[in-house]
Amino acid sequence: MISDLWYKNAIIYCLSVGTYMDANGDGIGDFRGLDRRLDYLHGLGVTAIWLMPFQTSPHRDDGYDVSDYYSVDPRYGTLGDFVDFTHGAKQRGIRVLIDLVVNHTSDQHPWFKEARRDPDSKYRDWFVWSKKKPKNAKSGMVFPGVQKSTWTYDDHAKAYYFHRFYDFQPDLNTSHPEVQAEILKIMGFWIQLGVSGFRMDAVPFVIATKGPKVGKPEEQYDMLRAFREFLQWRQGDCIILAEANVLPDTDMEYFGDDGERMHMMFNFQVNQHLFYALASADTRPLTKAMIATKKRPATAQWGLFLRNHDELDLGRLTEEQRQTVFDAFGPDKGMQLYDRGIRRRLAPMLGGDRRRIELAYSLLFTLPGTPVMRYGDELGMGDDLSLKERDCARTPMQWSDEPHAGFTKHEKPTCPVISEGPYGFQHVNAAIQRRYPDSLLNWTERIIRMRKEVPEVGWGDFEVISTRNPAILVTRYDWRNNSVLFVHNFDAEPQEIAFAAGGEGAHGDVLVNLLGTEHSHAGADGKHRFVIEGYGYRWYRVGGLDYLLRRNDTG
Ligand code: GLC
Ligand code: CA
After folding, report:
1. How remote is the CA of residue 406 from the centroid of ligand 2, in Å?
2. Other CB atoms within 10 A of residue 104 CB
3. Ligand 1 and 165: CB distance under 6 A
4. Which of 34, 181, 392, 457 is the most exposed place for a label (fewest CB within 10 A)?
5. pLDDT of res. 506
6. Distance from the alpha carbon of residue 241 to the mean position of ligand 1, in angstroms
7. Is residue 279 within 8 Å of 302, Cβ to Cβ?
8. Are 174 and 223 in contact (CB under 8 A)?
9. What pLDDT score does 520 carry?
């Protein structure tokens, strides 16, 4: 049954253990600290945590440079602490997904060290080498402007090695059967310690052919099936959430025609066009993106997000659209990154405007897919643009107005807490927001609760209903003889709108407001007419509140 698939209707919360809570007072967050905050997460209503990399690492790319896949970095605790944490999460019904960073290792990984040192080592072939400098060494960089090339000369090996990302992240030769076997072993290891799956980093690069003679890399999609099968054999409810910023016409290659590949993918297409819609009040490109990414196997799911730990990548927009988003949300060069994106957090991008923040979140929770939130966004946390590249949006969680936001007892946390301006911890923190019923934190808790009671969004089918007003997005979801309908106004001004709820059955005449008291009754022509305030949003149940009595058990 589709409704067995937990990930299709989960609330995923992404966090980094190093910036969440520091229990031992050394200035770095750790698993014991995170464990103590599980009650907070449970209260917020999240059902799954996505943990950013925490394995042993030199930390030159915030842990995305792993030097031992089978360990917890000592700064975060021990494997024992990790298991305590996954156990605590399980007790509260929260699943744990972890990052799986296997496109590359750190250059400090023993495999790479061995590969450099000894041409006869079995690890030599685990990486990608070239005696001569490949012609395309200056192309294909993921971090343009910061990263200079994709091939770097190694004095020990006397050869060039390939790195899609920074030069300290040598690419694994993922076509090699031994490397593939090792990837499965890594997954198997963490499953055994209580995780329910993986956010797989850089998937298009993991499955690409690599080598000095590869001009245009080809994706080896069958690898995805092998990863999935292994997981499912070991533990039925384990999933892979793929990071793959690809064009809609290749989505089905990642999901597999029969849903035999990735369970979930982040919807980058919708993400970029959503920000364009927020910037321009024109929802047409967003609607197009939703329809272009509509097709997917019944068992597959989109991961929806607003901001994540990386830059807001706007590379898929037209130049003009991108400029519109830059002008609205990141006008200064210092707010932009890698010639294609914005590195700020959500709240400051939206000028701290509560109406717009609620609108954005309401969309996150009602677009087709499973919402993936970022820690601190439930408080409207800000960024510190004095920190380099993407670090500006990775500052410690703001718990209270005590020193260092209650994140640590240490005098000087490794990563500074935001302590100045309107987003400083003195003003923005969880303790204050708990006290006020109307705070963003309490609003988020309520919206998550309501999202759980509209499972149609995760499991159902959707339709975008036209109102002939580009500033308005109306979506309806149908599942098991029930429907829900959402209206969003992207414009700052109130809009008068008219639409028919559509769908099958004769229930569309009544829309019951789930968040307020203004219900809607259709006119004689079957159309709903009302005025929606600037940046307003409405969540409706179609028909009446007897929907659970009407629900059927199939579909
Ligand atoms: C992914 C991560 C990013 C990291 C990169 C290299 O894009 O999201 O943070 O730098 O992979 O692992
Ligand atoms: Ca610590």
Report:
1. 13
2. 29
3. yes
4. 181
5. 64
6. 14
7. no
8. yes
9. 97
Amino acid present at 205: F
- The residue whose CA is least distant from atom 8 of ligand 1 is 310
* C-beta separation of 42 from 92 below 8 A: yes
Residue stretches of the chain with pLDDT short of 50: none
CA distance to 168, 244, 402, 407, per residue, from 423 (Å) = 34, 32, 15, 16
CA dist 40 and 445 (Å) reads 11
- Judge if the beta carbon of residue 102 lies within 6 A of ligand 1: no
Is the Cα torsion angle 399, 402, 403, 408 positive or negative in sign? Answer: negative
Helix (H) or strand (E) segment spanning residue 49: strand 48-51
Look at residues 86, 84, 25, 77 and name the one whose alpha carbon lies nearest to residue 55. 77
If you measure from the C-alpha of residue 11 to the centroid of ligand 2, how many angstroms do you get, rounded to a whole number? 27
Helices 268-280, 284-292: axis angle to 10 degrees equals 170
- Parallel, antiparallel or unpaired: strands 537-542 and 482-489: antiparallel
Tell me: the pLDDT tens digits for 226-282?
A: 999 999 999 999 999 999 999 999 999 999 999 999 999 999 999 999 999 999 999
Q: Taking the C-alpha atoms of 174, 175, 177 and 182 in order, what is their torsion angle to the nearest 10 degrees?
A: 10
Contact between 487 and 515 (Cβ < 8 Å): no
> Looking at the CA of 20, which ligand is closest?
2
Beta strands in 6-139 (DSSP E): 12-15, 48-51, 95-100, 129-130
3-state SS string for 427-478: CCCHHHHHHCCCCHHHHHHHHHHHHHCCCHHHHCEEEEECCCCCCEEEEEEE
Helices 177-192/222-234 angle, 10° precision: 30
Q: 317 — phi, psi (to 5°)?
A: -85, 160
Q: Is the CB of 361 under 6 A from ligand 1?
A: no
Q: Which active-site residues does the annotation give? A: 201, 243
Q: How far is CA 523 from CA 256, 498, 504, 507, 529, in A?
A: 44, 10, 18, 13, 8
Of the candidates 280, 262, 361, which has an alpha carbon nearest to the alpha carbon of residue 317?
A: 280
Q: What is the Cα–Cα distance from 32 to 29, expressed in whole angstroms?
A: 8
Please name which ligand lies nearest the alpha carbon of 200: 1
Ligand 1 mean position, distance from CA 202 (Å) = 7
pLDDT of residue 358: 98
Question: Which of 310, 390, 392 to mutate for ligand 1's pocket (most ligand atoms within 8 Å of CB)?
Answer: 310
Q: Which amino acid is at 179?
A: V
Dist. CA 75–CA 29, nearest whole Å: 8
Q: Name the closest-CA residue to atom 6, ligand 1.
A: 64
pLDDT at 505: 65
Q: How far apart are CA 23 and CA 88, in angstroms?
A: 16
